[in-house]
Write a structure and sequence with these properties.
heterodimer, A: 1298 residues, alpha/beta, Chloramphenicol Acetyltransferase, nine-stranded mixed β-sheet, 34% helix, B: 81 residues, mainly alpha, Non-ribosomal Peptide Synthetase Peptidyl Carrier Protein, Chain A, 54% helix, phosphopantetheine (chain B), Carrier domain-containing protein (chain B)
Amino acid sequence: MTETATEALAAVLPPDALSPIQRAYLVGEQAGMELSGPARYYVGCDLDPACVPGLGDRLRRLVRANPVLRVALADDLSMPVLPEAAADETDVEIRRVADADFDAVDTAVRETCTADTFAFAGGPRLRVVAVCSEQRARLHLVYALWLMDAASLDVFLAALVSDRAATGTAPAGVSRAAGGRDRSARDRRFWSERAAALPDPAELPLRPDWRRAGPDVTHRMLTVDAATARALAGTAREHGLTPAMVYLSVYGVLLGRLGGGVPHTLTVLYSRRAGQPPALDGLGNHGTTMPLEIPATAGQGFAGIAGTVQRRYLAQALHGSLSGAEIARLADPGGDPRRLPYPFAFTALTADGRREADLGFRRRWDEVQLRVPQVLFDHQVVMDADGSVRLGFDWRTDAFDTGFVEDFVGQYADLVGELAASRDHWARLPYRTPAPARPLASVAGETLHDRVMRRAAETPDAPAVHDEQGTLGYAELAAHAAAVADALRAAGARPGDKVAVHLPRGRGQVIAVLGSLLAGCVYIPLDHGIPAGRLDSIARRGEVRFAFTDGRPEADQGWARRGVRPLHLPEPDAVPSGPPAHRPAPDATPTAYIIFTSGSTGEPKGVVISHAAALTTIDAVNDELGLGAGDCVLSVSSIGFDLSVYDIFGPLLRGGAVVMLSERSARNPAAWADLIGRHGVTIWNSAPALASLLAEEGTAVPTVRTFMLSGDWIPLTLPAALRRLAPAARVMSLGGATEGAIWSIRHPVTDADCAGRSIPYGTALPGQDIHVLDAERRLCPDWHIGEICIGGAGVADGYVNDPEKTAAAFVDHPVFGRIYRTGDRGRRHPDGVVEFLGRTDTQVKLNGHRVELGEVEHLLDRLPGVRGSAACVRGEGRRKSLVAYVTLAEDPPGTWQRDAYAALGKALPHYMVPDAVVALDEIPLTGNGKVDRRRLQSLPLPDDERADAEPAVPAGDPLGQEIAGCWREVLGEPPGRRGFFEAGGSSYDAIRLLSLVRGRLGHEVSFGDFMADPTVAGLASLCRRVRGERGSGIWTYRPRAAVRPRLRLVLFPPVGGGVSCYAGLIRELPGDIDVHVAGFDAPVARSGPAVSLTGLARGCLRELPAEVLSGDGPLVFAGWSFGGALAFEAARICGVPVARVVVVDTPVSAASRAHGDPGDDALLAGFLRDIRETSGADVDRADVATDPTLRTRFEVYRQNIAALAAWSPRPAALPVVEFRAGEQPAERDAGAWGRVARTAGTAVLTGGHFDVFRPDNARHVRDAIDASDAVDGIEGIEGIEGIEGIEEFDGIERAESR
Amino acid sequence: MTRTDVPVAVREEFVSRGHPLSPSQDDVDLISLGVNSVTLIQVLSALEDVFGIDFDMERLFSAPVTVARLETEIARGTALA
């Protein structure tokens, strides 16, 4: 390598010269990364006006002394370092203004520097502006975060402002590890044992699209005064804690409490510097990150938590040779490198405000702007030498619910104040008691049946029940129910006895329920299809004495076997014509019904609900709906589900009617729509899945005025689908638990809700209360995740005959009275609305990741062609997999499945993307109308849904083979069917791959597009699409952009039109050469006269950026084979001086250019060989005719062969350097080029025509292109001596210059 | 290096980082003496290099870190090495 080249190559910073944090910042800026965005820091400083003179000189001194400040990041992430002389062009922008204009100008500068749209002008990534007036001055600095860490910024600012700034001695690159032994193996073992067990980040209220939050950031800065900070530090030391660890623990504890008090992980940024401040020429960024687990907060004192945090931090920092990215890879080798796994970050820094003030500047901390890619929330603690502490908070504005972070910052400040004020708080975390719950309404003393009988007396003829037998008026219903009560009494029933209602759907169920209550009994509603084994269990546990059956002998015998007396519905003696006669009420029993729900152990639990509890809920909902005598409710749910309690009593308490389905119509959405229309149903009440079936049925049901949805997640698309059926209807979400008497909470669904994270759970119904309690059963502050508990008059009495389960679930709370613990997680928002965060059965763990099935389903539901979906986890242990099932619309797009994978892959972390998406005719539902996930888990799966029988790249796909070559180069192994990341690639590798594809093949593919399908086939497809959009047969690209080019090079394509052959050569070229490449991907003229070589050259020149032919700086044209001829022709006609034309094994004589008129066979053979030699693809001859891509490439080949053969080179006084293949050179006549051009040198390369860019050969071609001593003028080239390196080569022939 | 040299070496590491310690403070928690986490990590790392040992993290941080405890842990580490 020549001296010139050495210098030039050293001027490009290799990627491995970057520290982990520098690399992370660069990667995080790439489009397509989760939470990508600029990595930038802005700080403003009040400046002593006396410091303004000399700012420019001091900046130039800093830039000259620090290579990192001269790095100019190129588009392909290469990092050319400008020479020291480039510092001379650096300057501080001084804005001199009148005092009166100072604030306006200063504000404008700050807004420019902090704008989302801010971009560096090119060259070094920093900008310094000083605004100064007679009286005032202010400094504005914005720089890329990878330039400087906090210690470097301290030195930079001091040295920029003052010549008096004394600094440390640590040069650039010094790190703690660098001076000691290699700890990487030990540290890898350390992290291997820990990384995979780290918990997830705290669960904060993030917006649904937080993964794609915009670049907008918000900054808050709090200052802890020196007295408070000293008090806190004093107590910290008593506990053996450093102040930094205390603030880290405050941050961690608050995040943990917000997330439900469970352990969580955050990211700590810390420095690898050796401790001393960096020297003036030692600026850089030596930060690194580590994940840090914060322990659970429940029942823990602050000092204990902080002690654990400190121990973990110290132990981990002592194993700090691994970067955060490396640790993440250990934690999850197949993890998605697009995202930082722990997006809540912390760093502790020091500052010396007094010293800075002494030097003449003071930072304006409130105006700092920190933009960190891939971080949602960044917290910095700056400990000033004056004793005060600044607490910086920077967050992605769009990622969080409005008001959340502001509230968090307030809580942080409060906790710091409390810890400083009292030692007690170190033993037990302070707790702010929220306002007490409001008083509850009372419905004591009333019963369901009394209220129905009252309605019957008021409106005896009004319809009460519709079913397939017709309509039953209120009086008739009362008479039938009275007959049932009589029958029960006749059978020996006593008040409080349990009566099973085991009847098919229809009026009989209503009659039996009401009759049982009239007899003072407790009814137990049972689905008619319930298995016998479960009936056995219910009969035993519920102590059932009587059962109303349909009279089938086997049913009666079954009940008799259980010790239960079967009864049949009696016919009343006479149907009354007026109001029912008043009957003396039996002794009142407080219990109305017992509903059996599934227990986690399989044993059903009987929930005991009193009349008062049921009335509390039903009255509240009826009030909410304004339900009246004109209303009609369709009872679509099974009687065994407690929604049936409302279906029956909701309307009957208000004089309305209930429509009972039959067993036949129970699962027929068309029949539901028909019944709704026929009876003018106004209220729909069901689980979301049944409502989805109605929506899919698509029949308009305009009489429905309210859809009540409860019992499961409401798909965000469902409310709109229902409104299409009934445009005037409102949709109400209801929630709660059977143990809270049907429902306890409601929320009217708005359009805005459907664009949110999930439909809000809502606010408590009157008479009930919803508490979100922490693990110590204290009311959680707003935003904190806790357990949803139900209080008030709707709470059940317990589980029948199960004191153990009752005691576990029903708690007497000292403040809230009797509450039911739902086991659901939620958080309360400041407006009182509670957000439901999932039941344990939809939140599953998959390979250690928390997976919310609802999130997968929401995404699928929005896809075109998908009607509904349900996801489940199948398998056990490491073979667990996530499978999504969908029902499809009538004519789904043929690509629905591919679209689904692409959409899911784009929106979700890899571990949440289903391994299979399977179409079903219908999603199986439980008897309660909920998704039957157990059944989903047992459905047979089609053979590997994602299997692709075809190889990764067809052998005959030249572009695919070329891309596969890049892939292999990056990952060390050829691509298979797995995606890039599954194959072990990192995000940095991906950027490398795309950089290679761009630099080698000229295809510009964005990171984000690649992410949608990160496979070799997907990338090939993208390349074709991107190129196809350009629409021209000739294209150019710029694989290497130099900031201040010393020389511009244009490479012209060989006969096949592709340019991958130049990749090695380009890699060898110094960083200050601006490289442009031209290529063909389609024949220039598809019809009409054949295009000439001159025409092709003109076409290439036309595609080049204007600056290439501006005459600004020396220009070199080069090309291999046909490309050399094209380069010569282009140089001849381009109109600007070309310093050299480098032709590499290029024929020029007529004899070498043409071999007569080759037939198609010969052309095809030549083409196939060309493909094989240049891309490695073994193309089948027949494919050329059938494959459009191959066909086009062949046409390019044919066009170029013909143009070359027809070319009549016109001699020109152009300096040509000729390289000839050592074996069978393309130009057989060694003197041929000398006859058409002024040969500046000739050299012979080893090997044949296709070996000319082997590394040893490529270096010689590089030297001929670079020939820096010839740049000033071609006169300097006398033969080959002017080209360094060539004279050492064997076989050189000296040519005389013309 | 003899056993008596170890606390001297430990104290020197702190002195070189701006934390002078007297022998009378050998049993005092270093953090309560104002040593911050950055300095502590640097010293521990340097001591690992000087003595060719790996500190047992569980043991080391199970109680306040003092010069005396560092001496014990170094002795234990060198015996294992």
